[in-house]
Amino acid sequence: MTDPAATTAAPSAPGTGKEPPALRAVVLAGGLTFEREVSLSSGTQVWEELARAGLEAELRDADAELLPGLAAAPADAVFIALHGATGEDGALRAVLDLAGVPYVGSPAAACRLAWDKPAAKSVVRTAGVTTPDWVALPHSTFRELGAGAVLDLIVARLGLPLMVKPASGGSALGVQKITRVEDLPAAMVSCFAYGDTVLVERFVDGIELALSVIDLGNGPEALPAVEIAPRSGVFDYTARYTPGLTEYHAPARLSEDVAARAAAVAVRVHEALGLADLSRSDAIVSADGEVHFLEVNVSPGLTETSMFPMAIEAAGYELGEVLARLLARRAGSTR
Amino acid sequence: MKTSEIRALFSVVSRPEVVSLAGGMPAVTALPLDAVGSMIGELVSGMGAQTLQYGSGQGDPRLRERICDVMALEGIADASPSEVVVTVGSQQGLDLVTRVFVDPGDVILAEGPSYVGALGVFQAAQARVRHVAMDDHGLIPEALEEALVDCRANGDRVKFLYTVPNFHNPAGVTLSEPRREALVALAEKHDLLIIEDNPYGLLGFEHEPLRALRARNNQRVIYLGSFSKTFSPGLRVGWVLAPLAVREKLVLATEAQVLCPPSLTQYAVARYLDTQPWREQIKTFTELYRERRDACLESLAALMPAGTAWTRPEGGFYVWLKLPHGLDAKLMQPRAVNAHVAYVPGIGFFADGNGREYMRLSYCYPEPDRIREGVRRLARVIEAELDLHTTFDAVDTGTFRAVGSAGRGSQVPDVEPYVGPANSDRYEDGGA
Question: Does the distance separating the beta carbons of A136 and B421 come in below 8 Å?
């Protein structure tokens, strides 16, 4: 692989011993969301990897100190390791755009679309990607039309089992699989605690995949799919972030044609939503080999148990090198 | 929602935007920090040969003497320094006592709710916890006797009763004077050992401390004390007061764990008690906590929706709040995090899965204005949750058409599945 700094910095004169100044990266992690803990873990990993790759890296929270801090000590580019709202919904990126601060990752408008899971599903389906049937409704609809009548329609249309999840957010927080209709009202109550809109989706049985995409300058490249096999059968928050509770296979144990289809889906999603630099789509391969898109993350988890770093490794890259190259590409280029 | 998810939700508490009514952190900034700093500096510069060295497993003799003076304030007049074992916070004291007395499968009686840190120790010892009901006057003696009789009839080995009699964590209530007598009498009658955990006893707002259980019976009560709330939790100095035969076992156990408690912090506490106006400092603390308690109770009374109930602590750190019928504090937590207010769901204070409708509110750390704002946010969260329950609680899924035709749990809908986004862009995407 090429030296990450070489893409943006002038090469030093041979024999002078003078190296170009290291790029200065600010890694954003923390935030004020349910996923703060995961983000801090991701951010620390990114910070360590960038430092190891020779960059001058600083870890910061997205708080009231951020903008003055960036003004006082400008970064060549910012790496956003924030999960959940602000970091993933486009808001922070819009502010960085206003401030003229370059950052790695998708632009604000694309993030806004990807963050809204029902909207992203619509766009992706229009682009020809299969995604489980769904309905997304705010609490007010149930209140105004009668929850019983609306839930009755949902079950009649989508069948059982159903997946009930917040319409935005990650890490599987608030996600429930409903196999008995009598559990549905309580699931709605607990899901609405995460946000005002609930996405109810037809359950698709199959192999769970994480489909990572990176773009190092030659267009979006699908990395090998990572297969997720939680020991409990459910890939919930605990299974995600507790080492040993989930078995991962990278690359996934798929036939060549299914693997190719999964890769095509990942790139199609990335392009259809206008994403940039990196993304991770979650998908299911059903028994017939169909790849069903579930949702996409513009700021994929980068913790030691996260799938994106596994995919990087399975592709033969090194995480620090990839992160440094992504950062070098964005250094100095505002949007 | 599992423990790891709760921990994740708690991670935002460190952000200043969030009003945390969750943690039970003492207000250490109310201490004379300069004086304490000089004192500790002198302990190192002037007495480093002792303060930075190993010490006795049982703890520094001078400190044990002073601990006896502290316990005298709660009526324990007969304690001897030889019966005191200094521990790394009273948490280690509880762990030692549990190790000495409890075998896997043994039963420990504890108030319901009970201190979460104790439940963790008991779980690690593979003990079974049986909760005993309490009310506004603390543990109910009749419920204790019933539990004892019941356990023994079942052949269960009841090793001890674990109780926090003053300003209970999390319930905020205090064991009344008549019940103290009744409890000690029950211990005699049923040959029961009592572990009296008393970190908050000197932090009363309304009256002088009630006489400790240990002051009423020196053979059946093992007493756990702590400087975490009266001085500093960061120093990690607590103690156990136990009859000599037990003390011997505790010293062996602590030597196996930590060799000896930290010398420097023991000297710091002893020096603090010797040279600083510590009783006045406790008054400073209680005034501060009383003001915060008042802010909390006044806000709760003004803002909480009907159906919410809470205890009215006369000291200590905590209010125990019961939500309106049907609400679940744990499931409600994401909404609270969104609203930037944090509390501890009640379920963590029970070993048996109960407590879903409760939460613990701590008023010890935030300033009164922040407490008022936190309660305001919490009230809105509860109201929103009530609204949600109004929408969904009455749903009768038995009338659903999918149920009628194919039975519950069916995976086969009885109508042609609608394919496509059924929300705003339904027609745009053209359905199937």
Answer: yes
Smallest CA–CA distance, residue A149 to chain B, in Å, is 8
Question: Which of A171, A182, A188 lies nearest to residue B392, judging by beta carbons?
Answer: A188
Compute φ and ψ for B241, nearest 5 degrees: -110, 115
Distance CA A165, CA A205 (A): 16
Contacts of A117 in chain B (CB under 8 A): none
Q: Around Cβ B393, how many Cβ atoms within 10 Å? A: 14
B419 has pLDDT over 50: no
Mutate to test the interface with B, among A28, A38, A140, A157 (most CBs of B within 10 A): A157
Query: Is the sign of the CA dihedral A263, A265, A270, A274 positive or negative?
Result: positive
Measured CA to CA, the distance from residue B298 to residue B76 in angstroms comes to 35
**Pairing state between β A197-202 and A162-166:** antiparallel
Interface test with B, best of A126, A131, A133, A234 (most B CBs within 10 A): A133
Whether pLDDT at B414 is above 80: no
User: Token pair for residue B208?
Assistant: 């002088």
- Domains of chain A from N-terminus onward: 4-105 (3.40.50.20), 113-130+205-323 (3.30.470.20), 134-202 (3.30.1490.20)
10 Å Cβ neighbour count for B282?
Answer: 18
Length of chain B: 432
Q: Residue B163: how many CB atoms within 10 A of its CB?
A: 27
Q: CB neighbours (10 Å) of residue A188?
A: 25
Cα angle vertex B370, ends B9, B10, to 5°? Answer: 10
- Check CB contact of B417 with chain A, cutoff 8 Å: yes
Q: Which residue has the higher pLDDT, A238 or B187?
A: B187
Provide φ and ψ at B333, rounded to 5°: -60, -40
Q: What is the pLDDT of residue A244?
A: 79
DSSP for residue B29: G
A177 in contact with B, Cβ within 8 Å: no
Active-site residues of A, by number, are 35, 171, 241, 280, 282, 295, 297, 301
C-alpha pair distances (Å), A15 with each of A5, A22, B91, B269: 18, 18, 63, 62
CB atoms inside a 10 Å sphere around CB B275? 11
Cβ of residue A152 closer than 8 Å to a chain B Cβ: yes
Reply yes or no on whether the pLDDT at A306 is more than 60: yes
Q: Is B311 on the interface with A (CB under 8 A)?
A: no
The pTM score is 0.88
B339 CB neighbours in chain A (<8 A) are none
Helices B3-10 and A36-52 cross at an angle (nearest 10°) of: 70
3-state helix, strand, coil in chain B (%, to 5): 45, 15, 40
Taking CB atoms and an 8 Å limit, are A32 and B423 in contact across chains? Answer: no
B172: Cβ–Cβ under 8 A, 6 or more apart, which residues?
B311, B312, B313, B316, B318, B319, B320
ipTM of the complex: 0.85
Q: Which of A298, A307, A300 is nearest to A274 (CA)?
A: A298
